[in-house]
Amino acid sequence: MRVLGRLSRLTRLAERELKVLFGEFGLERGEFDVLATLRRSGSPHGLTAGDLARSSMVTSGAVTNRLDRLVAKGYVTREFDPANRRTVIVALTPAGRDLIDRAVAAHLDNERRVLAALDQGQQDDLAAVLRTLLLSLGDEATDPRAPGDL
Fold it and tell me: Residues in domain HTH marR-type (predicted)?
């Protein structure tokens, strides 16, 4: 009970920290995840909505809602793939790229601040133990730094 209780409290505290940080950039966590995924995808930073749904492990409806908000804010575009007009490619705008670059830098600083009580070895050990537990419960991430692990 103490392990799961502490994990639960830690999750709530971490989520609060993330909400405040992302709010400073006018983003919700899901919007940050979409922009960060597009940024990691490489030039020209375009993916299909299906690719985004798979990488974020949310429904296509959730991705559509996130994309609608990001298009309205001017951070992403949706354009038909010239090679296949049935496919829509989502890409970062210059404003979206600038925003996510600044937000990721602030996010990494925030993560360092949150984890400052642990030295690098402790952080590595904790990450490995948590990964083992996640995999044992059916988490499909096989890479030590899964897409959601910015």
Answer: 1-135
